[in-house]
Amino acid sequence: EKFDIVKKWGINTYKCTKQLISERFGRGSRTVDLELETQIELLRETKRKYECVLQLARALTNHFYSLVQTQHALGDAFADLSQKSPELQEEFGYNAETQKLLCKNGETLLGAVNFFVSSINTLVNKTMEDTLMTVKQYETARLEYDAYRTDLEELSMGPRDASTLCRLDAAQSQFQSHKDKYEKLRADVAIKLKFLEENKIKVMHKQLLLFHNAISAYFAGNQQQLEQTLKQFNIKLKTPGAEKPSWLEEQ
Predict the structure, then answer these.
(1) What is the DSSP string of 37-77?
(2) What is the mean pLDDT of the chain?
(3) In which domain of life is the source organism classified (predicted)?
(4) 11, 32, 88, 124: most buried, per Cβ within 10 A?
(5) Per-residue pLDDT at 132
(6) For the chain, first and last CA: distance in Å?
(7) With contact defined as beta carbons under 8 Å apart, do 133 and 9 qualify?
(8) Pair 71, 102: CB distance under 8 Å
């Protein structure tokens, strides 16, 4: 049984390798679904661009986390000096309060940005990747389909003796099996691409609105609008002191 499995795998690998080399050197024909392959290439390009956005958003989170930590330390230093410098108590005091407020707003913004990063990460590395895994299966099935199609065509053009007819029947059966697999995966990919596009639009509409509203509110100094943005998207902040970089919990 193991020998048969290895033998079958070896024959399949040989046929597919032969087909692949033939295609690369322009000698073999290749089944092409132009519309589907255009959509697949667009998905790969979109994934690369979203990965760039994800990388930049993570960098922003890390830099801003460092800023908030610095503001927190600076506020503590001002508060300490306010108690120990009677002649500058008021000046150190209101600077300490300012840094404390900036730190609080910064933590709120970090919650929003972390939620944005988490959602984009899920979209890119789970949802898109799941579709691309099906695409890889489809591309393998396409190669196998063309390999067995070529094999059947070559046998069909040969002599029709008893031995060849037996091999022709086997080749026809294998071809039909790989054709069915190819067509099923092609349909699966088309459906997944359709649902992925719908899901991407839905997710990005929400996340881009969140990102814009949170960033705008923070840099406008609108604490109430910043907090309202987190409520709007059901984001809860963890208590400060949680490990870097996230204070958020998604409900």
Answers:
(1) HHHHHHHHHHHHHHHHHHHHHHHHHHHHHHHHHHHHHHHHH
(2) 87
(3) Eukaryota
(4) 124
(5) 96
(6) 52
(7) no
(8) yes
